[in-house]
Specification:
CATH class of the largest domain: Alpha Beta
CATH topology of the largest domain: Alpha-Beta Plaits
CATH architecture of the largest domain: 2-Layer Sandwich
Number of domains: 2
Distance between the termini: 22 Å
Oligomer: single chain
Number of strands: 10
Length: 245
């Protein structure tokens, strides 16, 4: 038996998230289906985490146990030949038996892309949150400072979360303005709650627009009350950038 690690990139637009579902297309479901064809047996893969419907990944990590003797490079080529063009297997390798894509991970890094302009672009709509507003990035950075460290993120936890604790540790939070209207937010944490990044972004945008002060943002965070926070930012701006082990 071999433990096989996958690194996958995907455009999540047309999928109902990572986790397999009985009646909806998912990233996990498609990969398992194609693996089953190649290996001639049902194969279950485990991912580093679940991305929501419409969320993308640059480097999602997964693993599975295989009793096949197919060489890794041949398996990679075979799987890529069957996968749709919006899912690409970047790397496939044999790893130690104790490696687990989720439980061995030390942190995850997400990026959230915002594109600001006077006229929306049809080419950016699948991969960013487009908006007309002018945003004060310095005020957004000041508000986000309180998020770094080990805290209770109940104010930004999505409904339906199965997590027993809403305490998480954010190691890094940066907001950078780029050329041609792009704004890139990078968040690294040990783990994330359901919709946590998108709920944070939806609230930080209010600070950037000037409709919420930094002090109000901090009070909302301290309140542990989701109803006081902002909207859930749309999924298409969110990317799983990297999983660290």
């Amino acid at each position: 038996m071999r433990n096989v690690k996958l690194i996958i990139a995907y455009d999540g637009t047309d999928y109902k998230g990572w986790q397999i579902q009985t009646s909806e297309p998912t990233i996990q479901g498609v990969i398992e289906e194609k693996l089953g064809i190649i290996l001639n047996q049902q194969t279950r893969i485990a991912g580093s985490g679940r991305t929501d419907a419409g969320v993308h990944a640059l480097n999602q990590v997964a693993h599975f146990i295989a009793n096949s003797k197919i060489e890794p490079e041949l398996l990679k080529k075979g799987l890529n030949s069957l996968l749709p063009p919006d899912i690409v297997l970047k790397e496939l390798s044999e790893v130690d038996a104790d490696f687990h894509a989720r439980y061995s991970a030390k942190s995850r890094v997400y990026k959230y892309l915002i594109w600001r302009g006077d006229t929306f672009s049809p080419f950016y709509r699948r991969f960013s949150w487009q908006m007309h507003y002018q945003l004060d990035l310095e005020e957004m950075r000041k508000a986000a400072e309180c998020l770094v460290g080990l805290h209770d993120f109940a104010s930004f936890q999505g409904t339906g979360s199965a997590s027993l604790s809403s305490e998480r540790e954010i190691m890094r939070f940066t907001i950078r303005g780029r050329a041609k209207g792009w704004i890139v937010t990078t968040i690294e944490a040990s783990a994330f709650l359901r919709h946590m990044v998108r709920n944070i972004m939806g609230t930080l945008i209010e600070v950037g627009k000037g409709s919420m002060t930094v002090a109000e943002f901090r009070n909302i965070f301290a309140s542990k009350d989701r109803s006081r926070a902002g909207i859930t930012a749309p999924p298409q701006g969110l990317f799983l950038k990297k999983v660290k082990y």
